[in-house]
Design goal:
It is built from 15 helices and 2 strands. By secondary structure, it is an all-alpha fold. The radius of gyration is 38 Å and the shape is flat.
Amino acid sequence: MVILKGKSLLLLLSLCLYVQSVPISMDKNKEKPKEEELGAPESADTGLHYDRYLREVIEYLEKDPHFKEKLKNADMEDIKQGKLAKELDFVHHNFRTKLDELKREEMNRLRMLLKAKHDIQEGDGRTVDHQALLRQFEHLNHVNPHTFEVDDLDRLIKSATKDLENFDKGQHDEFKRYELMKEHERRERLKKMSEEDRAKEEQHYEEMKKKHADHPKVNHPGSQDQLKEVWQESDGLDPQDFDPKTFFKMHDTNDDGFFDESELEALFTKELEKVYDPKNEEDDMVEMEEERLRMREHVMNEVDTDKDRLVSLSEFMAATNKDEFLEKDEWQTLDQNNPYTDEELKEYEQHLANEASDISQKSDDLQKQREELERKQEELNAQKMGLQQAVEEIERLKAQTVQQPDAPVAETVAQVVPGNNQPLPPGHQQQGVPVPGHS
């Protein structure tokens, strides 16, 4: 199960807002920035299908002093609405040239993908929806495939915004399907057991559920108690000396002034260890990752007021002054929040049953087709054998004719060709064959 990690520089170009830079003169004639070779992007994969392209564009834009300064001081809403994209007009020619090259490379990659998918689908006899394929790549302006323009940056920002807002939902849906399949397979195993074995299995299942649910109190993520526990157990400090600002600076591991999603999730490790242990039969590590995601979303909803998927020091400090920061109730873990309803399980099992029925029908159809092909092959083999025998007989008769030049070859051959069942005319006889009553 993929969980979105790493700094959110790729999220709406927002990380660039926080890169520390010294104001530099905007007169680009004074100093020509040196075009640098692009190495492997360092930021973590976002999970987007155009991840590398996004990272490469951002990496090059960061190298332009003017654009970097604009990113640092821009408002998040301006970025989301595409206003910052217009600043691309002021990016130095060297960087624009490299962006043009990156776009052409991405266009070539997409063309190959489209052709491959087209060839695959055409091979199956299905109609290709080319517009649907192009919509997968809304981050590019296909009308102008050669140069990187303001519209390209605007599209890239908006595509990243839309896709990353839906990314976590996709993870939740994937987890739900995992849980539905796990329960379905458990029920299918029970059906194949004897009554006695089924009772034992059900008892074991209930015991494992009870054992998993028997864990220490899980503090609300982002609450004072939860952070104090990290302060004490991970940092080795006295909980009485807990200071939110000091805590933030200690756990801002890259010292950029923000908690990104990875840094936030690292704070939940102690809480997750209370519930999940990879050595325990009753603990599912896939569920642990879903729990981690739920915790991170909870904190982001409470703290990330500008919705840029980053928690600044000011946002963090403001959150510590809210009533929610003093939350004492236990966090409701997944064993107390079933990810699916009974109705959803019924629908899922019906869906699987329908799929199984379709596969069975297709299998029967394929078997009939195979039997029909085998029958036709047998017929062809029989015809081939008959023709081969006829050819051999013709060759034999030809050899016989060489020895007896006066023999009527055409008539003799006609008698051995398969399918020629016409009787010989009355009084007709083959030369060399004695007639009864004649000497």
